[in-house]
TrEMBL record:
Protein name (Swiss-Prot/TrEMBL): Monoamine oxidase
Gene3D superfamilies xref list: 3.90.660.10, FAD/NAD(P)-binding domain
PANTHER family: AMINE OXIDASE, AMINE OXIDASE [FLAVIN-CONTAINING] B
Residue ranges of domain Amine oxidase in the record: 17-435
InterPro entries assigned to the protein according to its UniProt record, in alphabetical order: Amino_oxidase, FAD/NAD-bd_sf, Flavin_amine_oxidase, Flavin_MAO
GO MF term set: oxidoreductase activity
Keywords in alphabetical order: Oxidoreductase
Family indicated by similarity: Belongs to the flavin monoamine oxidase family.
Cofactor(s) it depends on: FAD
Positions annotated to bind FAD: E37, A38, V229
Pfam families associated with the record: Amino_oxidase (PF01593)
Length: 452
């Protein structure tokens, strides 16, 4: 290959929403851009695929959006003609707490409503202190960067109310309350207008991620799949990107758009800052997350079920995603995959385990078929979205998103707003492209300067 054919203005590593947004933005500014993806598909921690044995598309990873509150994603959807998918309202809202089934309409026993109100006020007052768009290490909220269990402990809540609040927090953490920072939930609450139950609204609308990504990618100079990156060397005049296959690509600048958990799998010369290296090693990704797409035999009423994973076999939510042509419901089961120390055994590789969790959430439901992808075992994600352990994000948030030399970083894991979401990924993609464009302008201006 002619060396000039393997030279680019910018190389973007990672073809999830952040990377594709960066690569598209840079291409539109007249740059020659190469987008590299280790997998054999686009999407990263999102993935649209056919449900087994059908022509129905399902979302195996991230998918939810909040219409009216996700402007970056909605602009892309409008530009590329991708519609929001809306799900019918559930017919029932049962909860399973402290080993008991509560049919509703309230999520906790009626005698605990005042305790429930106390918990909601506690969360609202805390989330109201967070200003979106400002890194969390610049907001004086270190006292909230504690385990979720410790955040709730002073309220002395009854078991059912405490389990319900912890379970709602599980939706954005996929970690037990003892292991995740309260800021994980409180920051997301602030995105939803400080509504503790705002996440329920997001479950009613989602994006067909594969369709949007395919259309965005058509506007990028060049895309290569099945191309893991082994090294990024910016110690010389150019940035040299070496693939796992031994090919070296030359660029003026690079965008790293891979999950934070995987940063240390690439050799950087010079090495990344200590903050980035240590945080990547700490594995703040939701490395216990589990999402399975279930086809059930037709139900008389399709519910939204919330349950404490301590008593439901690890699963904590069953939510509608639509229905098949014959009326069978498609439902998403969210849960925490089990460790040896857990009291439950949730394994999405086991139909028996999935069915047991289903029965704990919806007794009598008939499982026809299911599909799941273990992003925790996926070497190119090592977990799902970011799930902050206590004490880190208020130390390092701004440093984790900062560019280093000619390398910019784009991932929803470090988004200044809408952390861990598709919206956050697109925002970070725009930001990294802007940083890279400025870098390219400076490099071009300096190359025009001649010694006197």
């Amino acid at each position: 290959m002619n060396p000039e054919e393997n030279r680019y203005d910018a190389v973007v590593i990672g073809a999830g929403f952040a990377g594709i947004t960066s690569a598209r933005d840079l291409t539109e500014q007249g740059n020659r851009v190469l987008l590299l993806e280790a997998r054999d598909r686009l999407g990263g921690r999102t993935w649209t695929k056919k449900f087994p044995g059908t022509d129905m598309n399902v979302e195996m990873g991230g998918q939810f959006i909040m219409p009216g509150s996700n402007p970056a994603v909605e602009r892309e959807m409008a530009r590329y003609g991708v519609e929001t998918v809306y799900v019918a309202e559930p017919g029932e809202y049962p909860t399973i707490l402290n080993g008991k089934r509560n049919p509703g309409p309230f999520p906790v026993p009626i005698e605990q409503l005042l305790d429930f109100e106390k918990a909601l006020v506690h969360c609202v007052l805390a989330s109201s202190r967070i200003t979106q768009g400002i890194p969390l290490d610049h907001q004086g909220v270190e006292d909230l960067d504690i385990p979720m269990a410790d955040f709730l402990a002073p309220l002395d809540l009854p078991v059912e109310t405490r389990e319900f609040v912890e379970t709602v927090a599980n939706l954005v953490s996929f970690r037990p309350a003892e292991e995740v920072s309260a800021l994980q939930f409180l920051n997301m609450m602030s995105c939803f207008g400080n509504s503790p139950l705002g996440l329920y609204g997001a479950l009613g609308a989602y994006l067909e991620t594969g369709l949007l990504l395919e259309r965005m990618t058509a506007d990028i100079t060049e895309v290569r799949l099945n191309t893991p990156v082994a090294r990024v060397d910016q110690s010389g005049a150019d940035v040299l990107v070496t693939t796992a296959h031994g090919e070296t690509i030359t660029a003026s600048a690079v965008v790293v758009a891979t999950p934070m958990n995987t940063w240390n799998d690439i050799e950087f010369l010079p090495q990344l800052s200590e903050t980035k290296r240590v945080t990547s090693d700490e594995r703040h990704g939701a490395d216990r997350s589990g999402k399975a797409m279930l086809r059930l035999r037709k139900l008389p009423v399709v519910p939204l079920v919330v349950g404490s994973p301590k008593t439901t076999g690890g699963a904590f939510m069953l939510a509608s995603e639509g229905e098949f042509d014959n009326g069978d419901p498609l439902m998403a089961m969210f849960g925490m995959l089990s460790l040896d120390t857990d009291e439950w055994n949730l394994d999405y590789d086991s139909r028996e385990s999935v069915d047991a969790a289903l029965q704990s959430l919806l007794p009598g439901a008939e499982l026809v078929e299911y599909d799941a992808h273990n992003f925790n075992a996926d070497p190119y994600s090592k977990g799902d979205w970011v799930s902050w352990k206590p004490g880190r994000v208020t130390k390092s948030h701004s440093a984790l998103g900062a560019a280093e030399g000619r390398i910019a970083f784009a991932t929803a894991d470090v988004a200044p707003k809408w952390l861990m979401t598709i919206e956050g990924a697109v925002e970070c993609g725009h930001k990294a492209a802007h940083q890279t464009l400025n870098q390219l302008v400076r490099l071009r201006e300096s190359s025009l300067v001649r010694p006197l």
